[in-house]
Amino acid sequence: MRIWGISDLHLSFSTNKPMDIFGSHWKGHADKMAESWDRLVASDDVVLCPGDLSWAMRLDEAKLDLQWIGDRPGLKILGRGNHDFWWSSISKVRAALPKGCVALQNDCYDLGPMVVAGSRCWSAPGALDYTEQDQKIYERECGRLEMSLKAAQKMAEGRPIIAAIHYPPFTAKKAPTAFAELLEAYSVKLCVYGHLHGERSHRTAFQGVKNGIEYRLIACDYLKFEPALLVSV
Fold this sequence. Notes:
By secondary structure, the protein is an alpha/beta fold. It has a single domain, classed as Metallo-dependent phosphatases (Purple Acid Phosphatase, chain A, domain 2, 4-Layer Sandwich), CATH 3.60.21.10. About 40% of the residues are buried.
């Protein structure tokens, strides 16, 4: 089994939201992702997709985007991003998911050799897009991440824990946020995240090993729309 990652798919098969307004490299990005995903990922692999999956505003509008994800090879572990307004109650989301997709929310998923936790997280003090209005949501998201990590720690019983989160756990100046502190407290081995787009934002991403945790940015434009191999077991 191999574990891959690609975040911020920003699909819009039912909505008029072409991503090439953010740069010519986004033109046809869904086709680019489908080609590389189908070529690289095997049916018994796992793909982590932590957030900003669809531009849809309602769950019914996200159907085609979710089906596109479901049609790709591998088990897809989905998380919520700040633009996933279609993500309503978790029971409704899970009922709407196609075969081969699971959704994380305040919980975890057992992959056998390791356990995956995840949460949306939020913009933290020191981030490029942080404002004072974000503080309450930031604190609430810390609690949600801890719920997921606590469940993962209990399930893992010593096995490695992977965290798939949407927002980066470090500020633009690469200072740790409360999210990074939680990842350390629960002995996470690998953390992948997205949210950051464009060269300026990509340069702010902390990647590498810090205090025993490996961090990887997996936003699709950073990966040139090709899933990144994270773990092979």
